[in-house]
Amino acid sequence: MFPIDEPEAVNVILYCFCITDENSFVNLVGEWVPNMEKKHKGVPSILVGLQGELRSCSTSKPIGIDVLLNAAHKIGAKEYLECSATTGYNINHLFDFAFALALENATTPRSTKFHV
C-alpha cells in the first residue's frame, strides 16, 4: 500500500487482513489504522477479513468473529465483512458497500475525487 497524502482524495478506507494470520490483524489495528486515522480523520472505513473460505477449513485457526466485530466497532469501521477471492464469496457485497460509502462521503464539500 502506498500513502495518499491528499486527505480530500480519500472517500472510503478498506482495512484488509488475512483472517488466519493474527500478525496481519495486529499490525493492521496497531499500525495502519492509527496512521490512516491521523491522515484521513472522519473518512468511513470497512474492516475486511480476507481468505474467508478458510473459516470453514478444519486445519486453519481463524480469528474469532466476536474479536473481529469488536475490533470493527473499536476502530470505528462502518462494517466488518469477510470475503474470498478464491470462491467469490461476498466480493460484490464488499464493493457495493464500499462504493455506497464513497458516494455518501463524496457528497460532503470535502471532496469530489475518487481513488480505488
TrEMBL record:
**Keywords attached to this entry:** GTP-binding, Nucleotide-binding
**Does the record's keyword annotation contain GTP-binding?**
yes
Xref: InterPro entries: P-loop_NTPase, Small_GTPase, Small_GTPase_Rho
* One BP annotation, GO: small GTPase-mediated signal transduction
Q: Which GO terms describe its molecular function?
A: GTP binding; GTPase activity
Q: What is this protein called?
A: Uncharacterized protein
Q: Which species does the entry assign this protein to?
A: Ciona intestinalis
